[in-house]
Amino acid sequence: VTAAAAKLRTVKIKKNGRLLGFELAGGDSPETASDGVYVVQVSDDDILAAGLAVGDQIIEVNNHKVLTATLSNVRNCLNESNQLTLLVSSNPAGFAKYSHFAAHQCRLPRGVLSQGLHLCGRTDESQPQGVYVAAIDPNTPAANVEGMHVGEQLVEVDGISVLTLCVEEVQVLIEQMAKPEFGVKLVDNRDGFRPYKQIAAKIQHDARRNDERRRRIVRRQLAKAEDVKQVKITRPNGNGPLGLSITNADGTSSVGVFVAEITPGGAAASCPSIKVGDQIIMVNGQDTRMASTLEVTALLKASPEVCNIMLASISESDTQESTAPVRDVILSRTSPSESWGFSMVGGREEQTDIFVSVLHAGGLAVREGSLQVGDQVLYVNNTNVQGMNVDEVMLMV
């Protein structure tokens, strides 16, 4: 559908000072000026109400024809007056070339570059501009960000344009964010991402290998757990310090968050079962076995007056033979729809035994009290599950 054949509409806009309230994309050279100029984002509700929409082609600005004008010329026309009368037309065929510039906004948590987000893009002036989402690790805070996808280009970080920055500059900008959350604008710029797809593929491969390594370490730690305990720390004055510090390594691995120090006379010191070196595997019902120090710190700071922490004491030796007795655990639920209240990891595909990985806070397994994180599952309803996959075992319960 050509602009001439499409239905024309008049949109009247009063600008808010220097703010335009909408964003444009289109041909910005004499060779591409005939492509037209299109609305790719509308950020002002009044402008939306006036009838301007994403995908509209700008035909006239205050009776000045801009059908074949460059993007820069159209912007100059728009900046000349605070009262705008636009003649526009919906032109999906022409807009398709520039639809990837339709930016959307996401909220990212502080420290996201150490929590599953990987970037790639321009590293020096000889390369094409742009910084892109290269990989998003599964089961991380980055994976929980709605609307963010691999291959999208970062347009803004906390209101700062990053279109001309290199990837290291964008990483520094993100790492310096002090807010718990900050906004980023992203666009689906597949053409721009194409030169960096090979780099992104390597980052994704390395991220998968790292995730698999972390999971193997977690399984070994569960198998080595000598004692799993749940403690309750009461904050002084309702919101005072918990009286402990944490670290992300126990000296043997980079996986897990551990108790580094217990403040003498502090709240945690009143719980004698907490020991330096204990791994923090759950905070107020949140699984922290593969969490970063930043994530666990945030959970601890956000905890209410009484903080529930599940800890695992990890043995020094991988080869220490367990002498724990085999025991029966009987769980009875009131209806078929009720959850058993625990999760498992391991199995044939991962070449390990099956272990209880999580007890869901307030769930049936916690209420019953016998099942513990780190328990190896040997039989389910008198069926030997050794050599089976976790999915197969879950179908049995």
- Strand order in space, largest sheet: 1-6-4-5
Q: Number of DSSP helices?
A: 9
> What structural category do the secondary elements indicate?
alpha+beta
- Give the end-to-end Cα distance, rounded to a whole number of Å: 58 Å
Shape: elongated
How many strands? 22
Write up this protein:
The protein is α+β, with helices and mostly antiparallel strands and 397 residues long. Helix content is 20%, strand content 30%. The chain contains 9 helices and 22 strands. It has helices spanning 45-50, 71-79, 92-95, 167-175, 190-193, 197-224, 293-301, 364-368, 390-396, and strands at residues 8-14, 22-26, 37-42, 56-61, 64-65, 83-90, 104-109, 117-121, 131-136, 153-157, 160-161, 181-187, 225-234, 244-247, 258-262, 279-283, 286-287, 306-314, 342-347, 352-359, 379-380, 383-384. Strands 1-6-4-5 form a 4-stranded antiparallel β-sheet. The protein has a 4-stranded antiparallel β-sheet with strand order 7-12-10-11, covered by helices on one side. The model is unreliable at 1-5 and 317-323 (pLDDT under 50).
